[in-house]
Amino acid sequence: MRTRTFVIAGIFAALLVAGVGSYWASTHPDGLTHVAEQAGFSDTAKDSAAKDSPLSGYQVKGVDDPAVSRGLAGVIGALTVLFLAGGLTYLVRRRGRSDDEAHDHPAPAGGAPSARRTTPEGG
Amino acid sequence: MHVPDGFLDAQTSIATGAVAAATVGYALRKARTELDDRTAPMAGLVATFVFSAQMMNFPVGLGTSGHLLGGALAAVLVGPWTGLLAVSVVLIVQALLLADGGITALGTNISLMAIVGVLVGWLVFRGLQILAPKRVGLVPVLAGLGALVSVPVAALLFVGLYAVGGTAPVPLDGLATAMLGWHVLIGLGEAVITGLVVASVIALRPDLVYGARPVQRRRELEIRTAAQPGEREAAA
């Protein structure tokens, strides 16, 4: 199987799990939540500042059907992860050609310029 | 195991945030040695898969569930530093976009699931791989064992953090027992999923599995030296 075929099939499988498979996921509290309830400190949890995000709690705002809303939130979340993690590793990777190496990341992610100066093995 | 805001006090959250930021920064540099044009797409795929699998809570007992943390899985598939970055991206998207895990608790969650999950899973896997026979077929089993250990260790680290900076007075021995008990069960699920996924990738493309490289490289070397003894001098 070619790498491209493999990666695309894998992404498709992941989106299927997030979009459709998660419908059958257990809705019980997870280990930590359960322990916090039993031990009596679950009420110390505060609402996240991201509570009003359009995807908060794996529900897309404005989509009423909870199963569809959860699946859609899962697919959007998974694609966001793919974009960010794929982009990050694409920037960080060793380049195939040596002229890319010479430039050695002219503008990587934020905060990198100082990190590059203090890197003993940088480049 | 996503810790919400409010469980741990501000000092502890700032400390775990600093540890997480420093470790992710270090991983950004180290990941470069693991990633090339061929393996970089795998990292995006692994992060996406971990995100999706974390939505699939499985029941572990009456009224309780668990889900894959994905640390050992990511480490074995793409390497520990790339894996650490992949799981961190998952946790950042969950915290900021889906309000899953707190934002002030993001450093705590990266410390527990990305740093401890990945590095413990990887160290157990590599430790066993050095001792075990060098066979590709063993890679999924060893990955599963790394996964099995990584989950209760992360749970115990949470108890340690709670002992330092928990916001409610809770008896720590009871907390440790409960966290350990449930997370051994969740670790069993983590082990099964990790083993099955690694076995599937090995069945299709063993060369894309970072953790299988040490047991594969050896075979390639034997063939080359036996077939073309003079080539090396000619190339040099």
Sequence-ordered SSE layout with sheet pairings:
The complex is a heterodimer of chains A (123) and B (236).
Chain A lengths: L2 H17 L11 H9 L26 H27 L5 H6 L8 H6 L6
Helix pairs in contact in A: 1-3
Chain B lengths: L9 H25 L5 H16 L2 E4 L2 E3 L4 H8 L1 H18 L8 H26 L7 H27 L6 H33 L8 H15 L3 H5 L1
Antiparallel strand pairs in B: 1-2
Helix pairs in contact in B: 1-4, 1-5, 2-3, 2-4, 3-4, 3-5, 3-6, 3-7, 4-5, 5-6, 6-7
- Tell me the structural class of chain A: mainly alpha
SSE string of chain A, helices as H and strands as E = HHHHH
Mean pLDDT of chain A: 83
**Count of helical stretches of chain B:** 9
Describe the sheet with the most strands of chain A. none
Helix content of chain A: 40-55%
Q: What gyration radius of chain B follows from the Cα positions, in whole Å?
A: 19 Å
Radius of gyration of chain A: 21 Å
Main sheet strand line-up of chain B: 1-2
Spans of at least 5 consecutive residues with low confidence of chain B: none
Helix content range of the residues of chain B, please?
over 70%
Strand content of chain B: under 5%
Mean pLDDT across the residues of chain B is 93
In total, the number of strands of chain B is 2
SSE succession of chain B: HHEEHHHHHHH
Helix-strand category of chain B = mainly alpha
- How many β-strand stretches of chain A? 0
N- to C-terminal distance of chain B? 53 Å
